[in-house]
Amino acid sequence: MKGNLKKKKRVLILCTGNSCRSQIAEGFFKKCRNDWTVESAGISPTKLNPLAVKVMAEKGIDISHQKTKSVKKFLNQSFDYIITVCDNARESCPLFPGEAQYIHWNIEDAALAEGKTEDKLKKFREARDDIEKHILNFLKEVKD
């Protein structure tokens, strides 16, 4: 019986504020692998950025219900993959129990974009598309 049970993969995506990049990544992962447990968190969490919600809706993914969380919530949990999506998160990433594989993608922080809304949306779309590309490449390499 034990041979038939596949352990559900667990993924934690970390960034600084858990407002944009990690939230977008969580949304894509949940769409692509709804059989996995996927969480996102921030080193210093803020609030979900409405422009992240908007650009994900353009891809047919609703992240409006997602909540920002502190990495502290997950410190005693084990994961198969810990993915940092910014240098700050990589440098501040705590160690987690278990045999997690640590992966780093340095995604530009669209939340820092300045200018008109359309200029900001352009940066959010670039970050979204970059994250999607990283996730699709990652999923091609992962063994179930």
Give an overview in words:
By secondary structure, this protein is α/β, with parallel strands linked by helices. It is 35% helix and 14% strand.
CATH-level-2 architecture: 3-Layer(aba) Sandwich
The percentage of residues in β strands lies in 5-15%
CATH level-1 class: Alpha Beta
Radius of gyration: 15 Å
Looking at CATH, which topology would you report? Rossmann fold
Element string (H = helix, E = strand): EHEHEHEH
Distance between the termini: 18 Å
Helix run count: 4
Report the biggest beta sheet as strand number plus sense, adding barrel if it closes. Answer: 4 strands, parallel
Sheet/helix structural class:
alpha/beta
Q: Strands of the biggest beta sheet: in what spatial order? A: 2-1-3-4
Average pLDDT, rounded to a whole number, is 93
| Low-pLDDT ranges | none
Percent helix range:
25-40%
Shape type: globular
Number of strands: 4
Total number of distinct structural domains = 1
Task: Looking at this protein, list some descriptive labels.
alpha/beta, 4-stranded parallel beta sheet, globular, 4 helices, Rossmann fold, 144 residues, 35% helix
